[in-house]
Amino acid sequence: MIAQPGSLLVVEDDGDIREFLADDLRARGFRTETSVSCGDAIGRLREQSFDVVLCDVQLPDGDGLSVLRWCRQCPDPPVVILLTGYGSIARAVEAMREGADDYLTKPIVDDELVASLSRAMARRIDGPHLASEPEPEPESVDAGVDAGWGAELIGCDPRMEQLFELVETVARSRTTVLIQGESGTGKTLTARAIHDHSDRCDQDFVEVSCGALSESLLESELFGHVSGAFTGAHTSRPGRFRQADGGTLFLDEIDTASPAMQVRLLRAIQDREFEPVGGSRTERVDVRLIVATNEDLESLVREGSFREDLYYRVNVITLTQPPLRERRTDIPLLVESYRDRFAGELGRQVVSVDSEAMSRLCEYHWPGNVRELVNVIERAVVLCRGEVIRVDDLPETLRCEDRMVGESGLAGNRLKSAMADPERRMIVDSLEDHGWNRQQTARSLGINRTTLYKKMKRHGIAAPVH
């Protein structure tokens, strides 16, 4: 039987999510049917064909891989999109390597679902699913490496894919770029990627950490000095602006610059000219500027601690480096990449990470972001007593995660109970304000529609019957 355009099969054992997805997809014009298990889904697929299968990774009678493998054997296989919670991300990545086309983390975000379905339908129209043709989408599991970003800047999360696209877009321009993100997210790697993909890649990439130097040292470091400019300045020394002439200058932690230094930076960034410390001769350079901060510069402008004119000068193009906790789907990729790297560097025969250890790594909140993960994996490779990294090889903060959750559970339950009634009133009030339009209500509450639907179910909220 030939699939009708836009035909979908939703395989999900959670009734709330299954009902929500089915209703939402039907409202978008897709012919949508549902299944609750691997066996039921395969039975449906035997009877008729579908364009797309949205399949949960964890099902009552299997793990979703059974459905994927069955689909891959079909003469005209449907596009398979996996639905996964954070705890089963490692399994989702494994499924991607086996040929799944995409995966989405719960709670499902409308924009991500629509984007994934659009790509899926485009692939169906273009006909890339013939067995003799390569599958393009699974390669995104190694996004970053395949794109030439280097072994450390890795990601297949939609936020990282968007970041990669922006890097490619802005790399060949001369425009100043501002990179925002928490400490340890990899802002330096992104800055270097911009340089490496620019037409300045054969020139110097010069990095300066503004927060690591006092005002006087930073001024000399950036602009250089002439002989006799200050005590100990026995010879003239070119600064980093001069060193980066023709290349790229990366100023990290620009928010730490003093007001006086901000004035000098404004001129140097705007006009690409400056005078060395103690000198009167103006020097001009051809420098591509990339700046980074882990602070909200706009807030600092409002507080008066960062110059507004400098903010607008550096905020021409802004890239946001997402924290690791918001792109957990990338954790298995990073773990395996660094495990392989450190095993080679340290001469250790460590070939894999067992499933329990990987689950702990995926569920951890990573306050230190990728930098912390790198340290954890290096430590695990050093301490590993065999060929496989296990939970015992991880730091205590990760081994005790379950205990900490358990100790906080009672207080958490009390908090949830105390917050239940106010939350219900808030949801009902917002629904009434928006005429019971769930999309507008979810947007006003700052949540997605799946979360809103589940909260309505939990609180027994139903739309009034007119």
Features:
single chain, 466 residues, alpha/beta, Rossmann fold, Helicase, Ruva Protein, domain 3, 4 domains, 5-stranded parallel beta sheet, 19 helices, 14 strands, 47% helix, globular
Summarize the structure.
The chain has helices spanning 15-27, 38-47, 65-72, 89-97, 110-126, 158-171, 187-196, 215-223, 240-243, 259-271, 297-303, 308-314, 331-346, 355-363, 369-383, 396-399, 401-433, 438-445, 449-459; strands at residues 7-11, 31-35, 52-56, 79-84, 102-105, 177-181, 205-209, 248-252, 273-274, 283-284, 288-293, 317-321, 352-353, 388-389.
Q: Can you walk through the features of this model?
A:
This protein folds into 4 domains: 134 residues, 3-Layer(aba) Sandwich (Rossmann fold); 165 residues, P-loop containing nucleotide triphosphate hydrolases (Rossmann fold), CATH 3.40.50.300; 75 residues, Helicase, Ruva Protein, domain 3; 45 residues, Arc Repressor Mutant, subunit A, CATH 1.10.10. The chain has 19 helices and 14 strands. Strands 2-1-3-4-5 form a 5-stranded parallel β-sheet, with helices on both faces. Strand 9 and strand 10 form a beta hairpin. Helix 2 packs parallel to helix 3 and helix 18 crosses helix 19. It is globular, with a radius of gyration of 27 Å.
